[in-house]
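Appendix C reproduces, verbatim, an entry submitted by the partner laboratory led by Prof. M.T., so that reviewers can inspect both the input and the predicted structure.
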Amino acid sequence: YIGKTDSVKKLNFSNEANFLILFTAFSFFVWGLTMGKETLSAIVNIEQNINKIDSVVSINNNLTFQSIKSTGSSQIDKVEKARLLSNEMYTYIKKLKNDMLMRTEEFKDSSVLDTLHLQYLKALGNKEIPIQTLFAGDLKDLSKSKARELKTKLDAYKKALLELVSENACKGIFIGLNTDSVKTDDGYVQWELYALKTNTLIGSLTILSELQLNVRVAEATVIQLNASNVIKNQLYEIYKLRNPKDSN
């Protein structure tokens, strides 16, 4: 029991989460700059770093999953569900990115659409591709746009994740992926326009990459909650072994 408990405890996610907060703040700063060549290059670097963090979070999630699985805990069903939901959401966002990149006509095979190729993309500063892909060329009527479809899917994903944790736990956790309208000096702006509308292709790709990362972080939050339940159960079993009279 003790060995299994320690193996789950060692999977600490706080460092990655804190770094994500700082990194996100920096990325929003860069998106607000005038899009010169230097800025485009800087955003490519941000895109690459987001993907590096994404890999770290994914590895951490896999390790936690394997640790929970090794205990034979019933929590594994909820963790597997969280992973399935997250993979589906992650893949959907990846398809949106691929759709934009394929519109550049610089790629013939979507399988090579990875971060390493972005620095060589001639259409990094293209302004039309994001609007055509995410908003169908119409920023006023979003009802049939991919941006609205993304919002709907994110809302459903978040709801499904929260159903995998206890009611008490829901009150104290932060899943992120907020898609509410945003209050600005000019009034409320729909999430799709506020969060997704940028003036370059690389800006949109980076925003979507960050959303993918946030999906992995949300997945991690749910997995970690279930891992903590495993630890509590294991500690209780250890207590019963050491104190058989109290457990009767």
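The two ends are 20 Å apart (CA to CA). Additional entries are available on request from the coordinating office.
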